[in-house]
Amino acid sequence: MPFDILRSPFAFPHHLIGPTNYDSVLQEYEAWWKQEGQAISDAVDRTGTPWVRMFDSAGKRVDEILYPPDYWRMLQQGYRAGVLWRAFQDKSLRPSFLLIYLTSFYDSGLSCPYTVSLSTALPLSKYGDAALKERFLPELLREDDRNWQGATWMTEIKGGSDLGANVETVAVPDGNTWRLTGDKYFSSNAGAELAVVAARPKGAPAGVRGLALFLLPRQKHNGELNYTIRRLKDKIATRSVPTGEVELRDSEAYLLGEPDEGIYLILEVLNVSRIANSVGSVALAQRAIADALDFAECRIAFGRPVIEHPLLHRQFDERINDLRCAFALAWEAGKLLNEVWEERRPYSQRYHLFRLMAHLAKYWTAEFAVQTAKWCMEVHGGLGVLEEFRVERWLREAMILAIWEGTAHRQLLDALEVIERKQAHHALFEYVGRPPRLREAVDAIDAHLQLSAEQRERDWEPLGASLAQLTAEALAGNLPSVA
Amino acid sequence: MPFDILRSPFAFPHHLIGPTNYDSVLQEYEAWWKQEGQAISDAVDRTGTPWVRMFDSAGKRVDEILYPPDYWRMLQQGYRAGVLWRAFQDKSLRPSFLLIYLTSFYDSGLSCPYTVSLSTALPLSKYGDAALKERFLPELLREDDRNWQGATWMTEIKGGSDLGANVETVAVPDGNTWRLTGDKYFSSNAGAELAVVAARPKGAPAGVRGLALFLLPRQKHNGELNYTIRRLKDKIATRSVPTGEVELRDSEAYLLGEPDEGIYLILEVLNVSRIANSVGSVALAQRAIADALDFAECRIAFGRPVIEHPLLHRQFDERINDLRCAFALAWEAGKLLNEVWEERRPYSQRYHLFRLMAHLAKYWTAEFAVQTAKWCMEVHGGLGVLEEFRVERWLREAMILAIWEGTAHRQLLDALEVIERKQAHHALFEYVGRPPRLREAVDAIDAHLQLSAEQRERDWEPLGASLAQLTAEALAGNLPSVA
Amino acid sequence: MPFDILRSPFAFPHHLIGPTNYDSVLQEYEAWWKQEGQAISDAVDRTGTPWVRMFDSAGKRVDEILYPPDYWRMLQQGYRAGVLWRAFQDKSLRPSFLLIYLTSFYDSGLSCPYTVSLSTALPLSKYGDAALKERFLPELLREDDRNWQGATWMTEIKGGSDLGANVETVAVPDGNTWRLTGDKYFSSNAGAELAVVAARPKGAPAGVRGLALFLLPRQKHNGELNYTIRRLKDKIATRSVPTGEVELRDSEAYLLGEPDEGIYLILEVLNVSRIANSVGSVALAQRAIADALDFAECRIAFGRPVIEHPLLHRQFDERINDLRCAFALAWEAGKLLNEVWEERRPYSQRYHLFRLMAHLAKYWTAEFAVQTAKWCMEVHGGLGVLEEFRVERWLREAMILAIWEGTAHRQLLDALEVIERKQAHHALFEYVGRPPRLREAVDAIDAHLQLSAEQRERDWEPLGASLAQLTAEALAGNLPSVA
Amino acid sequence: MPFDILRSPFAFPHHLIGPTNYDSVLQEYEAWWKQEGQAISDAVDRTGTPWVRMFDSAGKRVDEILYPPDYWRMLQQGYRAGVLWRAFQDKSLRPSFLLIYLTSFYDSGLSCPYTVSLSTALPLSKYGDAALKERFLPELLREDDRNWQGATWMTEIKGGSDLGANVETVAVPDGNTWRLTGDKYFSSNAGAELAVVAARPKGAPAGVRGLALFLLPRQKHNGELNYTIRRLKDKIATRSVPTGEVELRDSEAYLLGEPDEGIYLILEVLNVSRIANSVGSVALAQRAIADALDFAECRIAFGRPVIEHPLLHRQFDERINDLRCAFALAWEAGKLLNEVWEERRPYSQRYHLFRLMAHLAKYWTAEFAVQTAKWCMEVHGGLGVLEEFRVERWLREAMILAIWEGTAHRQLLDALEVIERKQAHHALFEYVGRPPRLREAVDAIDAHLQLSAEQRERDWEPLGASLAQLTAEALAGNLPSVA
Question: A387 vs B460: CB contact, 8 Å cut-off?
Answer without folding.
Answer: no
